[in-house]
Amino acid sequence: MRKENRLINDFRWQTRSTIWKHLDSMAVNYAVYSTYLKGLAPHLVGFDLYLYAEGNNLVLICLDCCGHNAAQVYEESLELSPVIFSEGHEPRPSVVWKLSETVRLLQSHLQNTFPEAKVYALLLTEAVIQNAGELEQEWEFRHIKVIDGFRKLKCRAFCVNADEELPGKKLSDAVAHFLPETASEASATDLATQPPGTDPAEPASKPDDDEEFRLLLEQFLHGDEEEETGNDDDLLDDEDELEEADDSEGRKEGTGEEDDADPQSPEEVDSLEEEYFPSGEVEQNQNLKVKVDVLRPFPHPRDELNKLVGCTEIKRRMDELVALTTYNKMLLSHFPSAKPHVVSLHSLFLGRPGTGKTTVCKIFGSLLRQAGALSKGHVVVCDRSTFIGTLWGDEERSVRQVVEIARGGVLMIDEAYLLCSTHEHDPGRIVLQQLMNILADERQRDIAVVLCGYKEPMRRLIEMNPGLASRFPNQFEFCDFTIDELLDITLRRVAEYDYHFTPQAWEKYRSQLTLAYQNRDPETWGNARYVANLLERIYIRHATRCVAQTPEPLSDASLSGAQSANADNVAVAQPVAPSELLTLTADDIVPAELPQPKVRIGFQVA
């Protein structure tokens, strides 16, 4: 079955970070016929379209150059309609609906000449659809896929393989000459194919949309109040002007150097300031909202990985996982019909606090984004309190929202074993079951779930839920840092503030940290977190000393009065030298905090 629908399946699993490489591979695939169309009546007139045909599979790609800005962020209703009505914005036509209707009409049209033909479509849009996760099943039911959040689609150059001898040419021609009865008269220019990479002129006139669209648009606009809202033709004309303005702006920006020509160039991938990331708020119910941390990916994750102190085995395992993901992309680019290796990104991070689990998780998401396995690479950090609410059904709602926020990145659940206690009515069990159902869905590939926590409790969690072991095949164990590694971490952290120790201060610090390390409680030892807390106390004492050493300036009147009273008693304190502000002395080193011995309560047996 997969071989028969290979072309469609290959497109079905693409993401925003992988689609360009896949399209480039299609251009050199000598089994797939591809061509360019400027518009398709009745719904997609004026849009840039690309057709890919192989066997009985036909894939239609539509570019929606609507502009990547806040005004374009919208929400679709769960039932697709011709009109998008968002609060605070004018109603406008839904390109998703237009593409869905085009697929339906094409499928019906091709049944006469190609009864086994299957049509699938991709919409690449510059809009940002906030609730895309809720709509994916509806889209898949209609045989379409939407990838949002692009920039400067007009600047993207496509290559096609329009070899006249390929079998897919006949199937493509049947689409190029498609004129359904619902379409008004369309000129040959609207449907004629043009060379890829060119910027064909807009058609002289566009046919009116079908009657259903007009009726629904009037319903949204309350057609009986045309004086306030304007008529339908004015709205459509305004939309056309906006699209033309966006197109002209895109062409103007595209006249620059090569960095504008390729939106997915490494330079732009590293620039994450304009990347859209969801907000970190979960609404468990109408009365309770919970905040979660959303960590943006590193621009240079490989450098961050190399900076890690210790973690040698983790670096090696992570390199292997990323290499296998990258290998799959390389394999499919040269051999599209090859079967890629199954790579599960879901992982277990086992270790005590302060061993770098959150930092490594952030690097992990950034590396997977760079390799094309994740579309965004951000990390959503949550724990039991994120999911457990106060009302019935809060857990299911929280899981759905958290997964949607983490889509395209990493969902990190800290102390995950707290979600599954021995109590059979613990609501945390619902959370784990919901996650298991999501991970079992093959469509949920653009997400990596990482469960974190202490080693032994996490082992017990896996034993209690055997299904988790198969869903989380990647296990990374974070060992406690050695004293030498903690000293190395200290020097790296101090260098971030341009501080340096005097020899006496460094020796005193070494002895205090060693003393704390030798007397540590293995169950509560904070590792790098202990070092961070110790340094914070040192910074505070250092700042206090520098401020106390600097005298308060005396006014002229006070100084004159003091001199007249007793000139010998006026002491002029010396200010701190600028270099001393960045020098940590032995006086700044605070004593290490040692764990208090546990007091045993009981009776002594004689």
Number of separate helices: 23
Total strand segments: 19
Shape assignment: elongated
Biggest sheet, in brief?
Answer: 6 strands, mixed
Structure description:
The structure is a single chain. Helices cover 42% and strands 14% of the residues. By secondary structure, it is an alpha/beta fold. It folds into 3 domains: 6-269, no CATH class; 277-478, Rossmann fold, CATH 3.40.50.300; 483-551 and 574-588, Helicase, Ruva Protein, domain 3. The strands form 6 sheets. Strands 12-14-15-16-13-17 form a 6-stranded mixed β-sheet.
List the helices and strands and how they pair.
Layout: H1 6-12, H2 19-27, E1 33-40, E2 44-54, E3 57-64, E4 73-74, E5 83-84, E6 92-93, H3 95-110, E7 118-125, E8 128-129, H4 132-141, E9 144-147, H5 168-176, H6 188-191, H7 211-221, H8 226-229, H9 232-253, H10 258-261, H11 266-270, E10 281-285, E11 288-291, E12 293-295, H12 301-307, H13 312-334, E13 347-351, H14 357-371, E14 379-382, H15 384-387, H16 394-406, E15 410-413, H17 428-440, E16 448-453, H18 455-464, H19 466-471, E17 474-478, H20 483-496, E18 500-501, H21 503-518, H22 528-549, H23 556-566, E19 583-584
Parallel strand pairs: 3-7, 4-8, 7-9, 13-16, 13-17, 14-15, 15-16, 18-19
Antiparallel strand pairs: 1-2, 2-3, 5-6, 10-11, 12-14
Throw out a few tags for this protein.
6-stranded mixed β-sheet; 19 strands; alpha/beta; Rossmann fold; 5-stranded mixed β-sheet; 606 residues; Helicase, Ruva Protein, domain 3
Question: Concise description?
Answer:
The protein is of the alpha/beta class and 606 residues long.
